[in-house]
UniProtKB/TrEMBL annotation:
InterPro entries per record: DUF2189
UniProt superkingdom: Bacteria
Protein name: DUF2189 domain-containing protein
Keyword entries, A-Z: Membrane, Transmembrane, Transmembrane helix
TM segment ranges: 53-71, 77-97, 118-137, 143-169, 176-201, 229-258
Pfam family membership, one: DUF2189
Coiled coil regions in record: none
Length: 277
């Protein structure tokens, strides 16, 4: 009985371990002001022209996006989900650009071989992260399919083309309300993904952390800086919208630009104790 009491109530208070929380198990997060996201864009723009090889990543992503929309034009739910869902899977697609940013910072030679090397170095955590984002993307695509089916885009219960989908959305109050509801629900999902993927890849590349730790750090950064990071999310969305309106041509520049900028965001947000501020 005495042994049980000693295990439950240690005689020496030094034996009591502090409770582990998000704040105790992760590095401190710096507080940033509203102007910092604009500074990241400026720094990323400078880095882009210091390492123009990153434009190849943008070209590949732009071509994949353009071909995907062209192939799915007759399936509006799939085409719409690919365009809007790009922001859900973009974080994992930027692994090569993030590796280029890391190498640019450390003075290592850049190149596409370096980006491919990052895939092998990250290993399982990267694939788990990719799997998580793909699952969320599939949830979003299924949600769009159900929404359009309820709206009955097309004829005889068969979904029509993207042209018919847009006409159904914009031709009356029912369609406009449906479009607003779809965009609001998509924004909520995108915001959740943004919060848990904000600096996930940079953390894993820089510190070889587990996926859980990297996601926790990202969430903590968003929790401590909601207003400036919501501005950052709005800037990302606006630049992607411009890219979509240009048939993804602008994505050749926008994609690597944002990836390089986010590395500076990571450095400003996460205050590792062994790294001088």
């Amino acid at each position: 009985m005495a042994g049980l009491i000693n295990r439950l109530y240690p005689g020496d208070v030094r034996e009591i371990q502090p409770r582990e929380t998000l704040d105790t198990d992760t590095p401190p997060i710096n507080r940033i002001d509203m102007r910092r996201p604009l500074r990241w864009l400026a720094q990323g723009w400078q880095d882009l022209w210091r390492t123009p090889v990153a434009l190849v990543d943008g070209l590949i992503v732009a071509l994949v996006g353009l071909v995907s929309v062209w192939l799915t034009w007759s399936r509006p739910w799939l085409s719409f989900s690919l365009v809007t869902g790009f922001l859900l899977i973009a974080p994992v697609l930027s692994v090569g650009v993030n590796e280029l940013a890391r190498r640019l910072e450390t003075g290592e030679p850049p190149g596409h071989a370096a980006g491919l090397g990052a895939l092998a170095r990250l290993g399982l955590p990267l694939w788990l992260f990719a799997g998580l984002l793909i699952v969320l993307f599939n949830v979003w695509a299924s949600y769009i399919w159900l929404w359009l089916a309820v709206l009955n885009v097309g004829s005889a219960g068969v979904l029509g083309s993207v042209d018919q989908m847009l006409l159904a959305f914009l031709s009356g109050p029912k369609g406009i309300v449906s479009l607003i509801g779809l965009l609001v629900s998509g924004a909520a999902l995108a915001l959740a993904v943004f919060a848990v993927s904000l600096v996930t890849l940079p953390v894993m590349l820089d510190r070889h952390c587990s996926l859980i730790d990297a996601i926790a750090i990202s969430f903590k950064a968003f929790r401590d800086n909601p207003r400036p990071l919501l501005l950052w999310a709005a800037l990302i969305t606006a630049l992607f919208a411009v890219s979509a309106l240009t048939a993804f041509i602008a994505l050749v520049v926008v994609f690597p630009w944002l990836g390089l900028a986010m590395w500076h965001g990571y450095r400003d947000l996460v205050a590792w104790e062994d790294r001088p501020r």
